[in-house]
Specification:
- Strand 6, helix 4 and strand 7 form a beta-alpha-beta unit.
- The protein has 5 helices and 11 strands.
- It is globular.
- By secondary structure, the chain is of the alpha/beta class.
- The chain starts with 5 loop residues before the first strand and ends with a strand.
- It holds the Pfam family YaeQ.
- InterPro entries: Restrct_endonuc-II-like, YaeQ, YaeQ_sf.
Length: about 190
């Protein structure tokens, strides 16, 4: 019998000072049985980083949502879709292969990867040359200590505040706060 996803609910308040975006998001995250709390929380952070794109890219008329994630490798971890159904932003977390990223670049206006964990540097050295021609792709590295700190904040029901100022996202809850300053690799 297959294991079912675990459902997490998050109320995320985003205050993106850099982009002048302030909004509340009621989110449901389905964590696949093989997904870690670290990966799930990095997906949530990626959504918070790009929340301002709802206004900036889609003029408020779009959908920023989690994809099927590990359940469907053809679906992004997070995406922004405009009212016409066009994928404006495709976001992957972790260390994806080059072929799915190539496919994502053909389906979306912009593709972002948020690499995390101790193996991210090794992954990047092995894949960097294969990704140089992908103009729509940006690759970002989260500091190694961020993912475990985010995992400690994971609860089935979460009240979170994400503040973006000067390129740093600070995610806060009753569990504490985690400053996140992604490093751009590509």
């Amino acid at each position: 019998m297959a294991l079912k996803s675990t459902i997490f609910k998050a109320h995320l308040q985003v205050a993106d000072i850099d982009h002048g975006y302030y909004a509340d998001h009621a989110l449901t995250l389905a964590r696949h049985p093989s997904e870690t709390d670290e990966r799930m929380m990095v997906r949530l952070v990626a959504l918070a980083i790009h929340a301002h794109e709802l206004q900036d890219t889609c003029g408020g008329d779009g959908t920023l949502a989690f994809g099927a994630g590990l359940s469907d490798p053809e679906d992004p971890d997070v995406s922004l879709t405009d009212f016409t159904g066009r994928k404006r932003i495709w976001i992957e977390v972790g260390q994806p292969e080059d072929k799915p990223l190539l496919k994502a670049c053909s389906k979306a206006d912009a593709v972002f990867v948020y690499a995390f964990g101790s193996a991210a540097d090794v992954w990047w050295r092995g894949i960097e040359n294969k990704l140089t021609r992908l103009d729509k792709l940006q690759v970002w590295r989260l500091p190694t200590e961020v993912a475990p700190a985010l995992a400690a904040m994971a609860e089935r029901s979460m009240q979170l505040q994400a503040t973006v100022q000067e390129g740093v996202l600070t995610l806060s809850s009753t569990q504490g706060s985690v400053p996140i300053e992604p490093l751009r690799w590509k």
